[in-house]
Amino acid sequence: MSSKPAEFESTFKEIALQALQWFNLDRMTLFPNSMILLNDGKSISVSRQGIPELDKKKYVVGNYKGYLKLLRHNREIQTFNAEQLVTSGVGPLEELYKDGGRWHGIIRLELFGQLWGALAFSRFSEGEHDLDQEEVRRLKLLCDTWLVYWQHSTITRSLRQTGEQQGDESEKLLRLSKKQCTVLALLAQGLTAKQCAEKLFLSLEP
């Protein structure tokens, strides 16, 4: 419970870099479905060596709000090949192609039973296979771990407050998925983010 957010971010980036290598991805970004939260820095991005780091301001072009609208589709994953990036009509996807991106995927993420945002990931080369269902599941578990950690300190502080507020937060906890509850329980036991990942079979070693 005493883990610092800054320490977790460095741990997440360490795990995410392993995930990039394991899934043969070049860049991965976790972001909220809110321009306000994006501007407040509530996002995290990791790139492999030799791949440009994400410059969020560069992607606020054209129909950039159309990118967030993609999250409304009730599909676990959406993918775009090189041709689809060019013809999407969505500014950030077109900009990604100009930067060298040739394949892009989005996995929507929920928190407290509501849409929170998504995990976006890109490849800057062509000819690779799409992620299969098991790979999508493992990536989503990794992100659920980060999301729950990001929220758990706020929730636990709120739970110490008076009656009505406690009830509101308790209802939020009930809306967590089974996997998110497991992550929260592990964090409450004092496990680090990396240990949580290992407990959830997220070790990316072959």
TrEMBL record:
Name of this protein: HTH luxR-type domain-containing protein
Pfam annotation, one family: GerE
GO biological process: regulation of DNA-templated transcription
Taxonomy, superkingdom: Bacteria
The species this protein was found in: Vibrio ishigakensis
GO MF, one example: DNA binding
Residue stretches making up the HTH luxR-type domain: 169-206
Stored SUPFAM superfamilies: C-terminal effector domain of the bipartite response regulators (SSF46894)
InterPro entries with a match to the protein in the record: Sig_transdc_resp-reg_C-effctor, Tscrpt_reg_LuxR_C, WH-like_DNA-bd_sf
